[in-house]
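Methods: example folding runs. The two proteins below were folded one after another, and each record is reproduced exactly as written to the output file, sequence line first and structure-token line second.
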Amino acid sequence: MKELKILGVITFFTLVTYWGVEPLAHSIFHPHVDPADYEFKDLPAVEAKGDVAQGQELVSMNCIACHSIEKAGFPAPLDNATANMSYGVVPPDLSSAGAIYNANFLANFIKDPATATKTAHKFTGNKVHPMPGYSWMSDEEIASMVAYFKSIAPASMTNEEVFVDACGRCHDMKYSKNFATSDVSNYMGSTPPDLSMMIRSRGEHYLTTFINDPQKHLHGTAMPRVGLNESAQKQVVTYLEEVGDSKKAEREGIAPYVLGFLAFMAFISFLWKKEIWSEVK
């Protein structure tokens, strides 16, 4: 009976900690944020139907002066050093833009990059976003540009390819490879962190909501909202896991055997305890 009372006390305080103290501590250290919004509902919908041919013409007239589109045969117009001096950042290649970015986000980004990325607070006074906005274009023209980007987008991309295109211009991954990053601190005001172990330090849930909208976790942060669609963002998180937590599958696979061993040893300990105490009168 005494042992049952001890077990009851331990169980009570364990449950109080699990259902009371732990959730309270979690809510303080990890405040609730809204789930990831892959539709980017805060941005105005661009519902016009785009024309690929018109989009190709508009892109060739307005984009390739700064951007490369290797898949469409447009090489980088400037070398990296010159581009960095001119814009503060190397303009990205747009070959995969139609595959990895949400279409409505991409349309709004073309119109107003600072607003779409939620970085307007970084560009005040005489400081402007390195990419000019095309708000003077009609929705039909913007939609046509997006349609063109989607038409040349690759059918599939590896997790690393998505990461490089979405994150590799700003962030390093020293445990994977050396990415050619830009000196974005010139216009964003801070140096982006290395992401090699970010999956271990932050966890999948945090990264999922953070990548989708960094302002949810760090109000005023310099990191822009990237605008990835759900599939591309999952590939980015998966790649972070492949690099920073490569033993996850092995660790999870061995867990049942460890728990089974502990249960077996607990049973043996119980039998041993019963045998020892049976001699006590």
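Second run, written to the same file directly after the first:
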Amino acid sequence: MKRIIILFALLLCFIKATPQETSTKSDTLRKNALNVFMNASDYVRKEIPYVNYVRDIKDAGVYIISTIQRTGSGGNEFSFFLVGQNENAGMRDTLTFVTSPDETQDETRIKEVRTLKMGLMRYVAKTPLSKYMSISFTEPLSETVTSDKWNSWVFKTSFNGWLDGQQTYKSTNLYGAVSAARITKDWKVNLKARYNYGIDKFDLDTQMISSENNSKSINALIVKSISDHWSYGGTVNVGSSSYSNYKLSGTFMPGIEYDLFPYSESTRRQLRLLYTVGYSYVVYMDTTIYNKTKENHFQHSFSASYEVVQKWGSIDVNLNYSNYLHNWSKNNLSINGFMDLRIAKGLSVNFGGGASLIHDQLGLVKGGATTEEVLLRRKELATQFQYFTSFGFSYTFGSIYNNVVNPRFGNNGGGGMSITIN
């Protein structure tokens, strides 16, 4: 115990003996810099050093909420919502930039920094640091814009294969996909074809056990914008699945959607109500528990989706109900969601989960599944429900400033202390 006390005392002496930085012009500027609350990477902190990155939103003169959504070309649209508070109360800005699917991570983060610099300028302009800022424009402008020879169509192909094994086990999986998409202000068209094959083999000395999984599908989604709140369209799906006992499956589901908020605000908040009604046709691989080898039915579904991103966190909740029209007892009700809430200074909690009530499994195989198919989840099994859940929290305390980046010995260090439980 004495050794521990002596060691602790020596540590305190060392900390007190560490030279403290004297007040300089640089230190004065740092104190007068704009306080910003955002989820900033080390790269952003290095490239935009003339603001203070604070840990608590209440200390910020401006807080920044960022969102990402997929574009029609397969890239991403990044949006930054800058909201002034304290000395900048009432000031608001929204900036976006778009990346293409073939851009590197470095190209993306360069665009991110450029966009953030432009957005922060009018806030920095109100601080003493503004006299040291300069703005330049380096690219000559063309008077004309070339037309898009692809007419907004984007095509993508992918193929993946993996093999692993040992002396008594071998697994092989193949996956391929082809897609075409055209996203404009008035139309959304997604076409995709997929193929998936997997086989597992187990050598148990006395016998060899193998289990296969095979599925193919062609999917089409076409949506037409009516207004900033309404749209209509439909989906067409054709495919087969050994897991679901589908030798051939086809569905056609037209529908209409209403968003309580304008689609132009979709990166910040959505409340979408979607109703679809259509027709399905199925030919089964094996006779079902209802003694069917094929059947066709009309069906409909209703879904509600709520998404919001604010300074206090984010919420994403989805509710879906569907049933076959020939027998309303054959239905499915599911809900899932995720919340990330900042409830106090330095303290945030997150939790999510989902649950489904399942009464629409028309394709279950009459003979059931083998032990191998059950253990490897190669066949759909009868169930009346399913669920999942997750939760966690994080707490951070210490200095409100978080400006310094020090990559020595990796990026495990940092100001303050954090405790995370997941």
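Comment on the second run: Helices lie at 2-17, 25-32, 42-47, 105-124, 371-375.
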